[in-house]
Every structure is written in structure tokens, then in C-alpha cells.
Amino acid sequence: MTQPKRAKILVVDDDTVVLKAVTSILQREGYPVVAVDDAVEGLAAAKDPSIDVAVLDINMPHLSGMDLLKAIKAERPDVEVIMMTAYATVETAVEAVKAGAYDYLTKPFENIDDLSLTVGKAAERKALKDRTRALEEALTARSQFEDLIGQSSQMRAVFKLVETVSHSTATVLIQGESGTGKELVARAIHYRSARKDKPFVAINCSALTETLLESELFGHMKGAFTGATGNKKGLFEAADGGTIFLDEIGDVPPATQVRLLRVLQEGEVKRVGANEPVKVDVRVIAATHVDLTRAKEQGKFREDLFYRLNVITIDLPPLRDRPEDVPLLAHHFLKMYAAKLAKKVTGFTPRAMEALTVNRWTGNVRELENVIERAVVLTSNEVLDVEDLPPGFQESPQAGSPVEVFSLAHLPYAQAKRLAMRAFERRYLTALLERNNNNVSSAARAAGVDRSNFRRLLKQYEVAGRTMKTRKGEGNSPLEVA
């Protein structure tokens, strides 16, 4: 059995003789060990995300080993824990296992190989769980192309371009407003490429200071700056063989732009504080909501870096420019959050869908997702109506008013006309019913429409559900979208 030598082990025992002995045994096996002689300090040490296995004594002052076990499993359930005791009983062994311990050892060890073997098995189990989790995350990421949903001509063009560029190694620049799904496009390109089994590494370049950004991207050497206590690989090295996604590339400081240019030109990075460069094979996909052409002309973005990045450009349209995609996206998010929250919410009323479609969506797809999530959380209905949407969606402008015309002005003419007609017909039917005291027969005669056809119109435009009592079975129905 091959033991994972890189697993990091935490040993906590107030008996310094045992602590040194266990540490020595594990270090001879090649494990890096953190040795602590106090349970409270051991709890703090266990928060280190690099700890894989913890070996704990049961009987310790201040905080018992059993309490320490429970605290570690509550904070870091992925850490494998092995308990040690000189006073072994069946009851304590059962209690330890029930609390989440991987195994239970009795001191003194009859054979020191027992310790090495148990730690080795625990480390392998931790490594297996880590690999499984990484695989699940990768599979989830690969399926995220399905979240790039759309039937508009603009999105079909994006899908086609993604499929085409995935098979090359060319640098890609994705442009679009915040919330349009730029990272989803980057992931879709990566997981359709020959690099799909290699790392996909993403970083938001606007979220870090210049020093931290360079350290994250290129790595650093020990002592390169205050706080650099050891050598560290950068994300370019971590992405070797795969893809790095540089989000908000337009916010990168000028000095970092120079270093990025070297990576793109020479295929090598130099850690902060290092003398020698390191060769890397990384495909770069960058994204920005900034107009890089204007930034280049204003001297805020290097011209040579711009042309290195702008080999292939993918422009993501804002959601307001593709309103025909709103119903499809809305149903996708509805299904996703209904399943996540275990709620039976199956669709939208026509009024709700119209309100969603005519909205300008300044926050794009991300805003739409948030609105649907909120509605699913708060609703007690099976079908979402306008009342389930945020307050701004419930405003109903008068027909022909400037507000209504403006709210439709961003839509294609045919779609704007259809929605305006629906709004007019709903208001006409509502007013007709009110004038006839909610008497369907009288309203139908006044409209010159057969009574059964008039009822069908009331149901179609949901006027009956808001202005009069209906017979059982004549309530609102969800909007069906293919």
C-alpha cells in the first residue's frame, strides 16, 4: 500500500514524551507534523485548511480529547481523526467512533507500525474524499454550459463561437456587462477543449490590491515582501496545462499589465522576488465589462497587451437586448430553486411573465436569478404571480402612458406590440366587467362576444381571477413556455 506522503498530520497530547515519540514516528514516515501539547491550542491548529489527519489523546486538561474531536468535526468535518488513550474501554471507543473518529489506538502501542498503518489509512481516506469532491466540482462545472440558456439569435451566435474556439489554444476576450455570464462562457470553452482534464483557475482581478494580485497570479519567494513566510506558486503555475480565467482584466494595474504581457509573449512567469522564470503552458481567457478600446486610447490599458488578449472576442449581449430569452431563463431558475428549496412551484401566470419580460434588467441574468430565487422563497402559491415579485414589478402603467411606452421601447416591435395589446385587452375586459357589475352574460352582450368565448377571454387574460368570483376549476393557469 502506497501511503500519501504529503498528508499533513496534527498531533495533540499533553504528555510531551508521547507527543515527541508519535511525532518522530510519523516524521520518519515522511509526514509533515504539527505537534501541540495543549488541547485548546490544538483546536486552533486544526483550523489550518492544510491539516488532513488529527491524532488526539483522550485525557487532557482544560479540554478533553473527546470534546476536541467533536469541535474539530464540527469545524472541519473532512479531517480524519484518530484517538489515543492509555485507559481503553469499549464504551470510550464506541463514543469516539460515534463522534466521528476514524479509529482508536491504545497507548502504549504494542507495535509502532500500528500507528503508521492507521495514520496511513486515514490519510488515504482523506485523499480519496478530496479527489471525489474535486471530481464532483469539476462535473458540476462542466455541466454549467447548460446555464448559458437562450434561444435568441445573439445567444445562438455565442454558442456557435464557443464551440468553434474551444478547439483552439487562442486567447479569448469576453466582453459584456456585469451579470451576463462571462465566467460561464469561459468554463464552457475550457470544458469543451483538449485541456478539459487539466485545471480551470479563475481570479477576479479587481478584488485584490496590486501586491496581492501579483502574488496570486505569479507566486512569490520567501521574504519577497512582508508576510511572505515561504515560497508560493502562483495561479499561472497552478493552471499549467489548463486554463486561467482573468475576470475584470480592465482593472489590472499598469505594472501587472507588463508582467501579464510577458506571460502571453514568452509563456513563462517569474515569481515575485525570484531571479529565474518558470515555463508554463496556460490558455488565457480574459473578461471585462470595461470598454478596453477606449481604455487603450486613454492610456489606461497597454496597447500591446490589448492586442495579445483580443485575438478572439466574444461579446455577451445584455438581457434587455434579448427579451425572448427571459421566459426560458425564468423557468430554468424556477425549476432550480424549487428543487433546491423542496417547494412545489411549477410556473408563472401570464401577468408575471409579462412583467418579467418587459423589465430592463440592468443587473442582467444575475438580477433575474435573484428575483426568481426571492419569489420562490417567499411564495405560498404553486404558480408565481406578479404579487410574488419585488414591488417594482407590480406597478401597472395606464395604457398609452409615456411610462408604459418607455418600458416597451427596448423590445423588438412585434413583441412590444403583442405585449401592449395584451395589456389593453386585459384592461378593457376588466373595465367591461366592472361596468356590468361583474355579470359575465351582460358584459359578453356589451362586447358583442358569445358568452363561452367571453369566459375563455377572461380566463386567458386572468381578469376573472382578479375581478369576480369564478367557478371551481376556472382559476389562474401557469404560462407554458416551450
From TrEMBL:
<keyword id="KW-0067">ATP-binding</keyword>
<dbReference type="Pfam" id="PF00072">
    <property type="entry name" value="Response_reg"/>
</dbReference>
<dbReference type="InterPro" id="IPR002197">
    <property type="entry name" value="HTH_Fis"/>
</dbReference>
<keyword id="KW-0547">Nucleotide-binding</keyword>
<feature type="domain" description="Response regulatory">
    <location>
        <begin position="8"/>
        <end position="122"/>
    </location>
</feature>
<dbReference type="Pfam" id="PF25601">
    <property type="entry name" value="AAA_lid_14"/>
</dbReference>
<dbReference type="InterPro" id="IPR011006">
    <property type="entry name" value="CheY-like_superfamily"/>
</dbReference>
<dbReference type="InterPro" id="IPR027417">
    <property type="entry name" value="P-loop_NTPase"/>
</dbReference>
<dbReference type="InterPro" id="IPR002078">
    <property type="entry name" value="Sigma_54_int"/>
</dbReference>
<dbReference type="InterPro" id="IPR025662">
    <property type="entry name" value="Sigma_54_int_dom_ATP-bd_1"/>
</dbReference>
<dbReference type="Pfam" id="PF02954">
    <property type="entry name" value="HTH_8"/>
</dbReference>
<keyword id="KW-0597">Phosphoprotein</keyword>
<feature type="modified residue" description="4-aspartylphosphate">
    <location>
        <position position="57"/>
    </location>
</feature>
<dbReference type="Pfam" id="PF00158">
    <property type="entry name" value="Sigma54_activat"/>
</dbReference>
<dbReference type="InterPro" id="IPR009057">
    <property type="entry name" value="Homeodomain-like_sf"/>
</dbReference>
<dbReference type="InterPro" id="IPR058031">
    <property type="entry name" value="AAA_lid_NorR"/>
</dbReference>
<dbReference type="InterPro" id="IPR001789">
    <property type="entry name" value="Sig_transdc_resp-reg_receiver"/>
</dbReference>
<feature type="domain" description="Sigma-54 factor interaction">
    <location>
        <begin position="148"/>
        <end position="377"/>
    </location>
</feature>
<dbReference type="InterPro" id="IPR025943">
    <property type="entry name" value="Sigma_54_int_dom_ATP-bd_2"/>
</dbReference>
<keyword id="KW-0804">Transcription</keyword>
<keyword id="KW-0805">Transcription regulation</keyword>
<protein>
    <submittedName>
        <fullName>Sigma-54 dependent transcriptional regulator</fullName>
    </submittedName>
</protein>
<dbReference type="InterPro" id="IPR003593">
    <property type="entry name" value="AAA+_ATPase"/>
</dbReference>
